[in-house]
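Supplementary Methods, section 5.1.

A reviewer requested that the exact input to the structure prediction be made available. We therefore reproduce it here, unchanged from the version used in the analyses.
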Amino acid sequence: MKKIGFLLISVLLILSLVFGTGCSIIASEVTEKETTTVENTTDTKAESVVIPTSSQLQVLPSIADVVATVKPSVVAINTEITITDFFNRQSTQEAAGSGWIISEDGYIVTNNHVVADAQSITVILDDGQVYIAEIVGRDPLTDLAVIKIEAQNLPAAQVGDSSRLRIGDWVVAIGNSLGLGIRATQGIVSRTDISLQVDTNQVLYGLIETDAAINPGNSGGPLVNLAGEVIGINSVKQVQVEVEGVGYAISTEEAVPIIEQLINDGEASHPYLGVSLYPVDQYVISNFGLTIDHGVFVVTVGDNSPAAKAGLKPQDVILSFNGKEVETMDDLVIGIRSAKIGQEVEIVYWRNNEENTTTAILIKRPTSP
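The structure derived from this sequence is encoded token-by-token as follows.
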């Protein structure tokens, strides 16, 4: 029995050695084949793939460099306004805003709402110098204003071309945020050429929408691109419960012609037609028996206005202006604003189920139309 047991043990050992060696040989062969395949693949890729070095990688310009370039041209604006309360008592209220130097001899751009009705305007430069400013001109329609300080050799900001902006471009908003001094926030361009109603009787056009934080005190400050060029004037922050991180700046494309007028003439002139409008919606269609569903509905026509002289009447529907179709009220307003004072424009309108054509000569917009 001992011999049989010893024999069985010996056989098992021999078998284990044989199969163990076999497995080792097979594993070795597979490993060699796999290693050879990997090496060949690696060699092939190494010939066609180049890993860029850190010096070859494209890096975004430093926001700090942008701010350093523009910040000397940005000013803090403090104003004092006299207000009257319910009991007819007067008190002085202080407010803060921003502006930016557009010329070396002291002209500064800001928002109209920053300096409107101000009894005094104080400007603090980036180096801490304080000046008393005077209003050169204001334009409530576009919410732009120019003020001036008596100083020379100031660091004027460079003005860029906002029409070249693309959605996703980086921008930096700089200004006297919250009245706590000049601060900078960054973001991207979310939309361009936006129209926004900011008050009951005021709509701003040509706005840039950005997620760069625009807080109280930023108004009037510059929105700049990564080249350090001003491409917008910070103006509006949208405040709604469900809205966060949405601000608006007046594009330089829209602002520069107005700024030039304010500096040269002390006021801005706008073409005027003399109509009040309402969209052509189902309410208007059903209540006034319209047989068309597009254009803009004329509510009132100003006395002795270009529209009145052209023969337009309430309940007319304007279909085109100066050769361009009118689908919305914005279409007509932008068409009027892009025309010139004294220009004769063609107007196609709908009345009594017929299409009619007339011409109007635009005049300068009255102060209180």
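The radius of gyration is 35 Å. These observations are discussed further in the main text.
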